[in-house]
C-alpha cells in the first residue's frame, strides 16, 4: 500500500505555522482567498507541490471580486508554479478555464455539497461530469449526516480506480472518511496547518493525522 498523501491547507501567511505544516505534509493547498493580498509572495516561499484554490462566497470562500478576476488570480498561480489548480464544477467558464490550465498545471475539478451526501449513483454521475469537463483530478466532498455517508464517499473511490480521485465527507461524523480516504485508494486527504486553522468542518491537523498513520505503521 502506498503511503497516505496528506495535503496541508494554508489559510494564513503565518510563516512559522506554514513551515511546520510543510515539514509534515506531502503537498500544500494555498487558499488564496483566505490568505488574501500577498498570497503571491507566500507562494514563492513554498517548497513542496501546491494546489491553488480561490473560493468565493458561493463556495464558502472569501474572495469578493468578479468571476473574471477570480479566474485571473488562478492563472497567476499557474505562472507562479502551482502544481494543481482547483476549479469548481459549476464554474461558469469551466471549459475555457480547464483548457487554459491543462498542459501548464494539473487541473482538479471539485464538487462540494454542504447539505448532505447524495447516493452513490448520484456521486458517480458527478465524477463522470468532472471527467467530461477535462478533469485530471476529481474532488468530491460532501457533508456527512450519518456514519453510512462515510461508506458512500469511500465506495466512490472504488468505482473509479483508474483516476486520481479525492473523496471524503465533512463534519464530525465524516472525520473517519478523511482518515480512510487515501487508504481506500484516494489521491490524498486534507489537513489543517494546526488545530486552530481548519478550513472545513471535521478537518484535523496535519500533525494529528500524521500521528494516526504512524500508529498504524503507514
Number of strands: 8
CATH architecture name of the domain at 6-109 and 175-215: Alpha-Beta Barrel
Estimate the helix proportion, in percent: 25-40%
- Write down the CATH class of the domain at 6-109 and 175-215: Alpha Beta
Regions with pLDDT < 50 over 5+ consecutive residues? Answer: none
Spatially, the strands of the biggest sheet line up as 7-6-5-4-3-2-1-8
The residue-averaged pLDDT reads: 94
What is CATH's topology name of the domain at 6-109 and 175-215? TIM Barrel
Description:
This protein has 218 residues and is an alpha/beta fold. It has a domain at 6-109 and 175-215: TIM Barrel (Alpha-Beta Barrel), CATH 3.20.20. It is 38% helix and 21% strand. It has an eight-stranded parallel β-sheet.
Main attributes?
single chain; 218 residues; alpha/beta; TIM Barrel; 8-stranded parallel sheet; 9 helices; globular
Summarize the SSE layout with pairings.
Blueprint: E1 6-10, H1 15-24, E2 27-31, H2 32-35, H3 39-44, E3 50-53, H4 67-79, E4 84-88, H5 94-101, E5 106-113, H6 120-132, E6 137-143, H7 147-159, E7 164-170, H8 175-180, E8 189-192, H9 206-215
Amino acid at each position: 500500500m502506498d503511503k497516505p498523501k496528506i495535503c496541508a491547507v494554508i489559510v494564513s501567511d503565518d510563516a512559522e505555522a506554514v513551515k511546520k505544516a510543510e515539514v509534515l505534509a506531502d503537498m500544500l493547498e494555498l487558499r488564496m482567498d483566505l490568505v488574501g493580498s500577498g498570497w503571491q509572495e507566500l507562494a514563492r516561499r513554498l517548497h513542496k507541490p501546491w494546489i491553488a484554490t480561490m473560493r468565493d462566497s458561493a463556495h464558502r470562500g472569501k474572495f469578493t471580486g468578479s468571476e473574471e478576476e477570480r479566474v485571473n488570480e488562478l492563472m497567476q498561480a499557474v505562472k507562479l508554479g502551482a502544481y494543481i489548480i482547483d476549479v469548481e464544477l459549476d464554474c461558469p467558464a469551466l471549459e475555457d478555464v480547464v483548457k487554459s490550465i491543462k498542459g501548464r498545471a494539473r487541473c482538479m475539478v471539485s464538487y462540494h455539497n454542504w447539505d448532505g451526501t447524495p447516493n452513490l449513483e448520484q456521486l458517480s454521475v458527478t465524477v463522470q461530469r468532472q471527467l467530461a469537463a477535462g478533469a485530471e483530478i476529481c474532488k468530491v466532498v460532501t457533508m456527512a449526516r450519518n456514519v453510512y455517508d462515510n461508506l458512500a464517499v469511500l465506495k466512490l473511490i472504488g468505482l473509479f480506480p483508474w483516476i486520481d480521485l479525492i473523496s471524503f465527507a465533512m463534519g464530525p461524523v465524516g472525520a473517519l472518511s478523511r482518515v480512510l480516504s487515501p487508504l481506500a485508494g484516494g489521491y490524498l486527504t486534507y489537513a489543517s496547518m494546526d488545530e486552530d486553522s481548519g478550513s472545513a468542518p471535521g478537518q484535523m491537523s496535519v500533525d494529528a493525522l500524521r500521528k494516526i498513520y504512524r500508529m498504524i505503521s503507514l
